[in-house]
Amino acid sequence: MTLNKISIGQIKIHALRDGYFYLDGGAMFGVVPRTLWEKKFPADEQNRIRLGLNSILINTGKILILVETGIGGDLDQKFFDYYSVEREPGLISSLQKLGYQAEEINFVINTHLHFDHCGGNTYKNKKGEDVPTFPKAKYIIQKGEWAYALHPSERDKQSYLKHNFLPLEKYGLLQLLDGDREIAEGVEVILIPGHTSSFQCVKVHSEGKVLFFLGDLVPTSAHIGLSYVMSYDLFPLETMENKKRVFDQAIEEDWILAFNHDPEHFFGKVKKEDNKYKFVPFVMTSDN
Q1: All domains of the chain, ordered by start, with CATH?
Q2: Residue 49: beta bridge partners?
Q3: What letter does residue 137 receive in the DSSP assignment?
Q4: Which residues share a beta bridge with 251?
Q5: What is the per-residue pLDDT across 216-249, written as a single tens digit (0 to 9) for each?
């Protein structure tokens, strides 16, 4: 059974899932040959692999912070069919099952603005207008990511759907940051370029314990190996360098890692054996 709730000191973290979708396995693993990655992620007849749309809800006791909003539901059928989107259980339904309403969220953190990470930022109201899903939340986005999303390159412009983020500015909910910043006591965003130039991860710490939300720095447990880098990354060498830096610190300080796209594991750890990094499933114990 997948572990979906942990404690980091006094901070409670719930793992949520907007659903699943499918992406090309070759693109997800870059230069790594299929004969290697398929052992971990079997591909379908179209060479696609099933990925989770994972989020976390951070409850500090005073503040509710949602990290990532999934793919959302306001996309046309052609889009849903192309990516074979499965929106079960759905982000809002997952929140409600925990007893929370969208209006209670104080902050939403988007690691970046690709459609599978911020699609649930907005929804269409009865008038057909795109409006913020979390009307009382400040949406935390890096300034550089925002600027790039408004004018993306030909290489990745299809990954940015402006109805997912432009309404945040219109309704006064956009909070742009320039680098690392503490969002609430024990919760901070860390600028880690690689996937995009202004990509950010999320670090949660309390009472000597740490959880690190990796986002697309390490999208699944199968991407622990340094060379397992997505073709979607704009700066793959930076991704590799930053993975090593994060992993070394995670091993030294015994961090829990949270995965954004793993369909099975929300959480895990990393160890180093024979000079290689390896995934370790996270098991809750009395010492965690």
Answers
A1: 5-281 (3.60.15.10)
A2: 23
A3: P
A4: none
A5: 999 999 999 999 999 999 999 999 999 999 999 9
